[in-house]
Amino acid sequence: MKNLHFEDLEDKVCVLTGGGGAIGSSLGIYLSEMGLKLAILDLNGPRAIEVAEEITAKTGNQAIGLATNVLDKESLISAKATINTELGKVNFLINAAGGNSPKGTTDLETLDTVSEENLEKSFYGMDVDGFRKVFDLNFNGTLLPTMVFSTDMLDLGKGSVINFSSMSAYHPLTRVGAYSAAKAAISNFTEWLAVHLAKQNIRVNAVAPGFFVGEQNRFLLYDEKTGELSARGKKIIQNTPMGRFGEYEEIHGTVTYLLSDLANFVTGIVIPIDGGFNAFSGV
Ligand code: NAD
Question: Is domain 2-103+134-210+248-272 given the CATH code 3.40.50.1000 in the classification?
Answer without folding.
Answer: no
